[in-house]
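As a warm-up, study this chain.
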Amino acid sequence: AMPSSAEDELYITPILTPVCALDATEAFNGLAADEKKYTHFLSIASWAGSLACLVQTSPESPKIFAVFQKLFTADPPQQLQEKAKAAGVSVEDFEAFMQFVACFYGNMGNYLSFGDTKFVPRCAKPTVSNIIGCSSLPSLSAEWENIAGMVYDLSAANKQMGLEGAGISTYYSPGIKKEKIQLVQDFLATQNLGDQAYNTRLFENGDVLELAIASADVKASATHEFNGTKIEVTYGDHQPFMKSLADNIEAAIPFVPAGRADQKQMLIHYVKAFRGGNIEDHKNSQRAWIKDMAPPVETNIGFIESYRDPFGTRGEFEGFVAVVNREQSRKFQSLVDKATDFIKMLPWSEDFEKDTFTRPDFTSLDVVSFASSGIPAGINIPNYDDIRGELGFKNVSLGNVLSASSAAEKITFLTESDEAIFCEWRGKSFEVQVAIHELLGHGSGKLLKETEEGTLNFDPNAVKNPFKDGPISTYYKVGETWDAKFGAESSSYEECRAECAGIYLSLVPEILAIFGHTAVETEISDVTYGNWLIMARAGLLALEFYSPDTKSWRQAHMQARYAIFRVLLEAGEGLLELKGSGKDTTIMLSREKILTTGKQSIGVFLEKLNVYKATADVEAGIGMYQKYTAVPDDMLPLRQIVLEQKQPRKIFVQAVTVAAADGSISLKTYDATPAGVVTSFVDRFSEEGPLKGLIEPLSTSCGPFRFGAN
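Now compare it with the structure written out below.
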């Protein structure tokens, strides 16, 4: 069957992607001179590392980036537009081209960072060739023609990220089998290096599996035999970017304030981690980071989130630098103060909760630089389970990301009265949800496991599984980690646990009071109703991120929200219903039933998510999760309607820190337009600036997905 036009639209750059300014001017201007320098060097470092995101996205992304940098350095957008017009390019076509360029920069590659689908220009290939042919650099045309076919290729194997023919992944050689990836994971577990996969890619060279580690130093490789297979560990993946990253972090060290020993240690460990590639050094940076409480400038850098690895173990590069908003952070600290009491309200017994809640830092940040393929609204890291158990974690809420909005958005699938509540409470409800999700969602729950000494961290005679008869029969063995155990579903499963905690605890008046909302236990306040409404609608909109042909989900958070949507629908009793049909489909959420049916159904689901995770019960956990995230045939027409109504996600234009001749640092801002996005990238990676020399290695990547050392 031919895909519908709505289906095709998924892969074409939208006509009007909203561009929002990530505004940090006031926050930045409030910093002292040394704090500005610290921010500057870590921003440069983060953007250097972010070029690895291009390599992690698709074979053509690094080369597209290089072409665009050269194109707009030679001819700024306005000048190029005039030349293109003279060459017969229509206004619509030039705008379509600029939209593609802005979306490419905004996602650090030609696949959406939220949804992992490829997007192609809305204007035809000859049009782009014509535009690039207008450049003051005649050599660019040949560079473009080399990749133009790949840019427009929407064959089934290239439309989204995936493995074994279901999509592409540049974390791996083309065509690699999942059992080979698992074999390397098992090998790492036997070396007690389960986390070492985070900063690697995996290639098949004949019958040798090459585990390529990101590092600035190209050290000698080492070959191991495991289960009859040769595994060669090599160094120097992303080499030029890792070198610039480490050099610039090193340049920030002199600007660490005198009293912040942990902050200095963090930077020293970062430098070692990015030079040498040893994950233990990165883990040490995270240990120091957790201890560096409430710094004026907050940062975190590395191969952190594994959402985009179809196998779920390799991290995408990200680096952020942000200014702590003291006023806003007070609310979050109050939530932390009472976290232990609130965690007790979650629907599981203390057997499945950490013995002590390690009090984390929870701050609201105004982001100056977020260098990756996308920007989240809240973060709870590190993702290393052993560190979370031993030292805890930190939470951050990204205030200027939460508040950046675009006026153009239209709200679908709600009644008029619900739309009014949605629009009025969206920001405030989301703030509460993100806070609970990060602190009390991701921050709660215990993993039952065997310690290295061979003892158990729970009493097998006393702890009973509420969903199975008899003693606990499954738990984490030495060297096993939660994400390796639960595999590709682990990211989404954990997001679902945190999202459920968010809506469940948003019923608690004391939590709402911390955020300035009055509520009583016997009725649902607008902020809570708004929160459940946002979740129910998100679960319906999530269908956009499901691929019926591969029966797979392309976005962890949206899959999680769909599961919640299904749980609420299944609960019955009029809690959640869909009325109407076609584009008039409307979500009907019963305000009264949230307190009874809603709380009860989410409570049971949340307890199961937590207990199955705690007990390493992969079979029951994944079985249940796949049941709720399956999309039955009768829901596919609904997906069609969702696709026809879909709105493009916003992209951000970020400021660039600029050093004057006397060493003082200022922030240069840009218009919230596609041209503004382009100009910011031209400035950021300019050959006159601190990141000079990094564009050339992008245009000369050799072999499938590889980068030679310089």
